[in-house]
Structures are given as C-alpha cells and as structure tokens.
Amino acid sequence: MNEQKAEIYFNDEPVGILSKQNNKYFFKYYQAYITDNTKPAISLSLPKQNEQFVSDYLFSFFFGLLAEGDNKELQCRILRIDEKDHFTRLLKTAGEDTIGGITVREL
Questions:
Q1: Scanning 6, 18, 64, 78, which has its CA 20 to 30 A from the CA of 27?
Q2: Rounded distance, CA 50 to CA 61, Å?
Q3: pLDDT tens digits for range 42-67
Q4: Structural domain contains residue 49
Q5: How far apart are CA 8 and CA 63, in angstroms?
Q6: Does residue 17 lie in a domain region?
Q7: Domain span at residue 17?
C-alpha cells in the first residue's frame, strides 16, 4: 500500500490533507477550518464539508497548480519526476511561490 500525503495551506494556514493511495486521490478539510465561518472554501469544486472528497484523478483544482509545457519538462528533468506523476510533481513544486494563496507541503 503506497501512500503519499501533503498538507494543504491557504495563506500559510493549514486547511486539510491531500493524499494518494492505491491510485485514488483524497482530500479532507480539517474540522477547525470547516467550522470557522470566516474561512472560505479553497475552491468552488471543493466546498467546505465534513466528508472526504475522493477521485480517480488528481482534483482539477490541484492539477491547475502544476506547471505546463517547457516549465513542466524542465521541472521533471531536474527533479527526476515522471511527467505523468502529477501528485509527486505537486508535492515537489507547489510548496512556495504558487499562483494564489494555496501551497502544498509534503508530509
């Protein structure tokens, strides 16, 4: 059972856990984030809820944080990541300087 995990942050505040296990993707908000009415959902496609989100593919919101084209090729070559391994690319490249307030920190 191979599992990869990341903590998701919005403006440097922990929001929840994103994980990949057995080729399935999971995202779950932290309870404290859900109950704080001043905190927005991180995406329209990932509204605040108690239930875990499950997908056969990396959630489009997180996929949108990944580089494309020449930048993708360069990152994959330098970091020695398979271009089709979107989750590992996210873990290795979305820890800082992302567009918007979302960052991803590998656990």
A1: 78
A2: 19
A3: 999 999 999 999 999 999 999 888 87
A4: yes
A5: 13
A6: yes
A7: 3-64+94-106
Instruction: Specify if 79 maps to a domain.
Output: no
- At position 44, the amino acid (one-letter code) is L
Number of domains in the chain: 1
Identify the pLDDT of residue 97: 66
Q: List, for residues 64-88, the tens digit of each pLDDT value.
A: 888 788 887 888 688 888 888 788 8
Q: pLDDT by residue (tens digit) across 9-39?
A: 999 999 999 999 998 999 999 999 999 999 9
Alpha carbon distance 33, 84 (integer Å): 31
In a domain, 88, yes or no: no
77 to each of 3, 27, 64, 80, 96, how far by Cα in Å? 23, 28, 20, 5, 19
Q: How far is CA 83 from CA 37, 41, 71, 98, 106, in A?
A: 38, 29, 11, 19, 18
